Amino acid sequence: MSQKTVIHTDLAPAAIGPYSQAVAAPAGKMVFLSGQIGLNPSTGELVSDNVEDQVRQAFSNLTEVIKAAGGSLESIIKLTLFVTDLKNFGIVNAVMAELIPEPFPARSTVEVSGLPKGALFEVEAVIVA
After folding, report:
1. CA Rg value for the chain
2. Would you call 51 helix, strand, or coil by DSSP?
3. Structural contact between residues 84 and 112, judged by C-beta atoms closer than 8 angstroms
4. Average pLDDT for residues 100-126, to the nearest whole number?
5. Residue 50 contacts by C-beta under 8 Å, 6 or more apart in sequence?
6. E strands of 40-120, at which residues?
7. Is the peptide bond before 103 cis (omega within 30 degrees of 0)?
8. Domain that residue 61 falls in
9. I want to staple 37 with a disulfide (CB 3.0 to 4.6 A). Which of 5, 117, 119, 128 is the partner?
10. Taking the model in full, what pTM does it have?
């Protein structure tokens, strides 16, 4: 797979975290992944009430779906993050910076009033595999 291309301009605000202003996707199969929350795949229950644990599990679940689609974390061109409390954004950002390789995908973060099963975090992605 050819490398995704990061698009950047100094005429718009620089990224303030592990994401890019925009990403041009390489040629390939575009896959739209549904949101993943911090569910343990074996039990179908949240891994814990701790936001960092849920974020790590959600990204683990997302990674497995990406692999099943024939991609890898490098294949992500767009992430959408959903949090129930923006006060947890620093935790989410730190975990994402640790797990997602550069060049970073484009990203949006949205605070929502609730998520399935009382989750604190959800992540969805678009990949090119």
Report:
1. 14
2. helix
3. yes
4. 96
5. none
6. 76-83, 106-111
7. yes
8. 5-128
9. 119
10. 0.89
